[in-house]
């Protein structure tokens, strides 16, 4: 695993190497001009998370048939919002600490340079459609909370209970477990934050996702305790292990999609149910234009999944697009945004290892990248993203730090 010393040393050597090679490389102005001169690809390109369904293929066919790029984005997002088994998006998403599912979404339409966003949206399934309605039907960019809900209903969307029975039981399990992690107290960036350590009893707030052997007995006892509680709550046997995992290490997923057609038109969209068990009213990066999503069809499009608060602080998607504007490749731009996240903690790996981030990046000429803060998932598999440019495939992310997140 990369240490703070390794990170700082590598950064210094990189800077030195860039300085030595500066005389033989194009100037920043030349690189920026080359971006302006780039031509659209001969085939459409889609960059997103691996959804495990056919919607990416269907969206690609829509592009081949001449559909608007934002329609293609929404096609993929709508399916995720409809899937009760995707507990990070839409119906079935894990709720806030009060048991209310609050959705966030945003979209940007390259051809018109319009944007829309919705945050902390209750009782409406398709947050991606509400963000688009905000874009198309109002003079605002963002609506939140009950105001966003009322707007959605006025525009014809129906109220419904967004808490699926499976998600409700997981929330009850989290609620009944008095030792569950919550978001009260000093944040990771605070000098008052203290790293959790194995307690002598089960009375503690959080277990690292990849703890050392000193945590083994604590995890075994906690898991056994939670499995018994899950049984009492009527959670089916085949769902209990997953429910326990969500209590100990809650889902933080999202979906972002960036799309480019052969006319050079781009759109991007992001949708999520946000951080599980969050404080009511919390907004992550997904509804923030420039953080969870940013599209400029003169340059490119980018979006993110992961530690939302950290992405807001570096304006991740905008940073990436702006770096590409200055001549960086998609991979270089994504890694630069990740370096800024690490820099915010002065390379302190005791804190950085609690963060996670994946950026999905698409340039106006069809060049693309998926980049991740850490190289592997919790199970040790490489971080991946999905690309479709006539052939749908899953590729490994480029990564900044080797290893995996702790929490």
What are the salient characteristics of this protein?
407 residues, eight-stranded mixed beta sheet, Peptidase_T2, alpha+beta, TAT_signal, Glutamine Phosphoribosylpyrophosphate, subunit 1, domain 1, Ntn_hydrolases_N, single chain
Largest sheet: 8 strands, mixed
| Low-confidence runs | 199-205
3D shape:
globular
CATH hierarchy: architecture of the domain at 29-161 and 252-401: 4-Layer Sandwich
**Number of alpha- plus pi-helical segments:** 13
Sequence of secondary-structure elements: HHEHHEEHEHHHHEEEEHHHHEEEEE
How many strand units? 13
The CATH homology group name of the domain at 29-161 and 252-401:
(Glycosyl)asparaginase
Overall residue-averaged pLDDT value: 89
State the share of residues found in helices, binned by percent.
Answer: 25-40%
Distance between the termini: 15 Å
Instruction: Identify the CATH class of the domain at 29-161 and 252-401.
Output: Alpha Beta
Short description:
The chain is an alpha+beta fold. Helix content is 36%, strand content 18%.
Describe it for me?
There is one protein chain. 46% of the residues are buried. The chain has a domain at 29-161 and 252-401: Glutamine Phosphoribosylpyrophosphate, subunit 1, domain 1 (4-Layer Sandwich). The protein is globular, with a radius of gyration of 21 Å. The strands form two sheets. It has an eight-stranded mixed beta sheet. It has a five-stranded mixed beta sheet with strand order 7-8-9-10-13, with helices on one face. Helix 7 crosses helix 9 (237-248), helix 8 packs across helix 9 (237-248) and helix 11 (316-325) packs across helix 12. A hairpin with a 3-residue loop joins strand 11 and strand 12 (392-396). 36% of the residues lie in helices and 18% in strands. The chain is built from 13 helices and 13 strands. Mean pLDDT is 89; it is low at 199-205. With 407 residues, the protein is α+β, with helices and mostly antiparallel strands.
